[in-house]
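Quick one: structure tokens for this chain, please?
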Amino acid sequence: METRIDSDYKKAFNLGYEIAKELNLKTPMFKGQDSSQNSTNAIQAGMLHYIHEVALSKNKVLAKSVQIRNIKSKAERKGKNKNRGKGLSL
């Protein structure tokens, strides 16, 4: 069964997404708003979708930097103990 989305809802959702993108929103704009208005509800949904996408992309970037840092520290530790306990070579 295919889910059909109302074209007006889709337009409002996309509008909310674009507004959030333009304003670089970090938190929802219409907190505490009555959700009975469908157009406002769709705009809010679009804004929330953008905010969640930004948060996910930041988490991915942070995770990647942590992985790179771990790899570098492992390589440094591996090189530090290389000559340990061998003494002077004559």
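The CA atoms of residues 45 and 65 lie 30 Å apart.
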